[in-house]
Amino acid sequence: MKVNSTNRNLRSRLADLVLCDPCCEIPLTPCPVLSRSELESEPLKWLKFVVMDRIGVERISRIESQVHRFHVGQIGTAEAWALRQFPATADPANRTMVVAKVVPWGSGAQLRNYRLFDANDAKAAFRSISDDYGTCDYELWCCCSSVSASGFNLGGRITIPTGDRPQLLELVWFASPRFLERVQLPDFAFPYLRAQRSWPNPAFRVDALHIPRSFATVPAGQWMSDYTAVARSLNRRRSSMNRLAATVRSIGAHEVCFCFKVTDGRLTIIDWDTEIESTST
């Protein structure tokens, strides 16, 4: 059994997690969502993926196919994997981004992402990871996605608060969901959309659409077409996301933010965060 670090309280809360009804937030079963062996053997970040699987938000098999797990002692193996993901010749219409992430045992949020777009980025990033974390007993995760400046590729997040506060949906095209933390209009470099919906209205209302001049050649209707497809896909997952939100409210969370990516038109929920991850000690 590993020794818990600064997020001991959050791991303890996850141990108490049971599936709750989103309508009345009453437990649907006395059985915990996570097993004792999982709590004792998996990093906190991976436990969050297991929770998504158990509640029906995203299948763990899909996450496993996208997140490649290494130990920081396997820097060479991880770097070799990353280098294989880049096309032999640079092509803006087929741009790939590899994200490397150092994953400590007790941290489930606010982890540093190393974004790699070519072999030079990869070599520099893995050298930095080796220098900074090479002696640590941490995992190193890598994944890749398309950030081509064309096609149906985007990152997004949807925030589900408690009570009657509106839900917020944000999209950024051709970039990672983490780029949403950098949005400052009107100078943001990527296409961006913001929409809200109020309970119990199932429809979002767009209140911001920002298209930089560099994307002016894209047909204007394409942005709203992509947004509509994303909204429909999220609506198909609405009940499962509401179940997860209700379930984590039972351990003290007041708001859940789901991050997702769309690659070639296919949406995957890649993470969820709550405010208790930054306040638990």
Descriptive overview:
This protein is of the alpha+beta class. The chain has 3 domains: 57 residues, no CATH class; 81 residues, Dna Ligase, domain 1 (2-Layer Sandwich); 126 residues, no CATH class. 33% of the residues lie in helices and 28% in strands. The protein contains 9 helices and 12 strands. A 6-stranded antiparallel beta sheet has the order 10-9-8-7-11-12. α5 packs antiparallel against α6. The two termini are 19 Å apart.
Give the helices and strands as they follow along the chain: HEEHHHEHEEHEEEEEHHEEH
Radius of gyration: 19 Å
* Overall 3D shape: flat
Mean pLDDT: 88
Strand content: 25-35%
User: Biggest β-sheet: count, sense, barrel?
Assistant: 6 strands, antiparallel
Number of strands: 12
Which stretches are low in confidence, meaning pLDDT under 50 for 5 or more residues running?
Answer: 1-8
Terminal CA distance? 19 Å
Number of domains: 3
Helix segment tally: 9
Strand arrangement, major sheet: 10-9-8-7-11-12
Judged by helices, strands and strand pairing, the structural class is alpha+beta
Portion in helices: 25-40%
Task: Label this structure with key terms.
single chain; 281 residues; alpha+beta; Dna Ligase, domain 1; 3 domains; six-stranded antiparallel beta sheet; four-stranded antiparallel beta sheet; 12 strands; 28% strand; disordered N terminus
